[in-house]
């Protein structure tokens, strides 16, 4: 296959035919280079890692499941090094193109998978989401993407980054195909009796956007209210302690959540791979190297404090996300930055990204990004989150919602 987008890893024709029959027969998919494919090295986006690994002896479990359902593997896609960035720019292998926003980054770390789907090279693609690596590329590249409930789908045969945050995930251009893949991977269909009926809107998340981004998303929020009724406006992590009714509850705002995520995830990354990094000293891009160097300095006290605050946040979120309830928030703080944006701007942008992606990461709740809005001709995603285990109902709702809606009068305050 001719790779016009720079989305696929070099090194061979990594294709596998699916079963002769199945619900996904006729569909081709790509696999992020953290999933095992039989006979090939899982490269993790880094040449030093790849050169020290042997070819896999079996496919990752969910790759095999998709093959058994009739889908065909088209190839392996580029990932940011060690699946450890949200930009989509790999120091060694380059930046996959963003077909929906030329000249702008595709988002990472599932960069190649998002590029391949957005460019029509495959029908859907496997990525992963630890800190936003499905939701951010989905928003930047104009795709549907699901970060499922933590541990809802097996990660056997998938390279780990931070296990208590890692999830598999996938992209599609159409909501119905995103849903169909979910039904295959979860061996089930949505339950009619627990479909979403109530809408929450994360006020602090929308207030984190600039005015133009809020206005671009506003009509789609109104459509959600038309479907589900007048929204209840809530704060994910209010700065005001009294607003929670629990004055002893630590509340740090959304950037505070990002800080908790970075500490907890960073320690897990170092616990998983630190010894290898210290022994091998792999050549990494400057931003990834800086991040790894910081991760080894995280103290036990920082981890203990962050873990306690994570529990407070998760209890509060569980009280908001009751059954049949969905929470709406922006997928990203804006459209994709330009490829030539300087590193300091991208680093500041990363903090804004994590402020929006950390709630699902910390709680393990499922979240779907929907390609509903555009700004300056570039995609801008809107997300829905539900309680843990509500993946199929979320997928089914999004399929129906995105199948055609009537515009309504303004109901939202944004």
Automatic annotation (TrEMBL):
Record-linked InterPro entries: Amidase_CS (IPR020556), Amidase_dom (IPR023631), AS_sf (IPR036928)
What SUPFAM superfamilies does the database record attribute to this sequence?
Answer: Amidase signature (AS) enzymes
> Which UniProt keywords are given for this protein, alphabetically ordered?
Hydrolase
Q: According to the UniProt entry, what is the EC number of this protein?
A: 3.5.1.4
User: What domain of life does the native source organism fall in?
Assistant: Bacteria
Q: Name one GO molecular function term.
A: amidase activity
Q: Where is the Amidase domain?
A: 18-395
Q: Does the keyword Hydrolase apply?
A: yes
- Protein name stated in the entry: Amidase
């Amino acid at each position: 296959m001719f790779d016009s987008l720079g989305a696929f890893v070099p090194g061979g024709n990594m294709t596998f035919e699916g079963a002769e029959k199945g619900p996904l027969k006729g569909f081709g998919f790509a696999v992020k280079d953290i999933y095992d494919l039989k006979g090939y090295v899982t490269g993790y986006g880094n040449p030093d890692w790849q050169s020290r690994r042997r070819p896999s002896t079996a496919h990752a479990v969910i790759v095999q499941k998709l093959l058994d359902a009739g889908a065909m593997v088209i190839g392996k896609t580029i990932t940011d090094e060690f699946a450890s960035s949200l930009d989509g720019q790999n120091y060694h292998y380059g930046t996959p193109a963003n077909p929906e926003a030329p000249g702008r980054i595709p988002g990472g770390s599932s960069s190649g998978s998002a590029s391949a789907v957005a460019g029509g090279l495959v029908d859907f693609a496997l990525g992963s989401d630890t800190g936003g690596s499905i939701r951010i590329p989905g928003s930047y590249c104009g795709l549907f993407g699901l970060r499922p409930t933590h541990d809802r789908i097996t990660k056997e045969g998938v390279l780990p980054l931070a296990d208590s945050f890692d999830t598999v995930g996938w992209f599609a251009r159409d909501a119905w195909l995103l849903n169909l893949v979910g039904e295959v991977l979860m061996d089930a269909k949505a339950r009619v009796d627990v479909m979403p009926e109530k809408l929450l809107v994360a006020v602090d998340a929308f207030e984190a956007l600039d005015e133009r981004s809020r206005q671009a998303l506003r009509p789609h929020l109104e459509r959600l209210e038309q479907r589900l009724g007048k929204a209840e406006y809530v704060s994910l992590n209010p700065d005001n302690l009294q607003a929670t009714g629990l004055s002893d509850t630590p509340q740090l705002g959304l950037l505070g959540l990002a800080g908790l995520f970075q500490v907890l995830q960073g320690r897990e990354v170092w616990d998983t791979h630190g010894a290898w990094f210290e022994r091998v000293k792999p050549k990494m891009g400057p931003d990834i190297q800086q991040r790894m160097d910081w991760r080894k300095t995280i103290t036990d006290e920082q981890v203990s404090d962050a873990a306690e605050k994570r529990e407070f946040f998760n209890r509060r979120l569980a009280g908001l996300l009751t059954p049949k309830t969905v929470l709406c928030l922006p997928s990203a703080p804006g459209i994709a930055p330009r490829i030539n944006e300087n590193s300091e701007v991208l680093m500041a942008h990363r903090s804004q990204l994590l402020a929006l992606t950390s709630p699902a990461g910390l709680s393990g709740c499922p979240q779907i990004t929907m390609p509903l809005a555009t700004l300056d001709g570039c995609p801008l995603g809107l997300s829905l989150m539900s309680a843990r285990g509500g993946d199929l109902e979320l997928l089914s709702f999004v399929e129906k919602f995105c199948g055609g809606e009537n515009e309504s009068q303004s109901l939202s305050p944004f």
